[in-house]
């Protein structure tokens, strides 16, 4: 069975899964929006609007208003792969957000997650 290309999936389908993952561990939708905004430059209001749109996940990252230059400080494993070693730039951006949400779910303080 062929794998689904996450870049073609709808943002409106993927983002709620990230929110649910964080919420299962006691974090909030607002915290997920905060880390997503930090990474991409979208405002929480834009994220809410995009969650109601037909935008694909790949385009969400391709059209990001301002990718945070400190995102390269996000390191570690996600799905058994070191995020800093991912060669495909788009997939690396996707995995950066996965890693930030993982760190939220693990209970890390926001200032550590946002690399401040």
Automatic annotation (TrEMBL):
InterPro entries: SP1917_dom_sf, UCP033199
Gene3D superfamilies membership: uncharacterized protein sp1917 domain (1.10.8.290)
Recorded superkingdom: Bacteria
UniProt xrefs under Pfam families: DUF2200
Protein name: DUF2200 domain-containing protein
Organism name: Candidatus Avoscillospira stercorigallinarum
């Amino acid at each position: 069975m062929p794998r689904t290309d996450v870049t073609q999936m709808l943002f409106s389908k993927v983002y709620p899964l990230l929110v649910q993952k964080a919420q299962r561990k006691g974090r909030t939708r607002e915290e997920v929006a905060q880390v997503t905004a930090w990474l991409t430059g979208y405002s929480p209001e834009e994220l809410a609007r995009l969650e109601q749109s037909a935008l694909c996940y790949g385009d969400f990252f391709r059209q990001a208003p301002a990718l945070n230059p400190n995102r390269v400080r996000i390191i570690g494993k996600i799905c058994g792969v070191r995020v800093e070693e991912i060669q495909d730039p788009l997939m690396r951006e996707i995995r950066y957000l996965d890693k930030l949400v993982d760190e939220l779910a693990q209970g890390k303080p926001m200032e550590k997650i946002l690399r401040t």
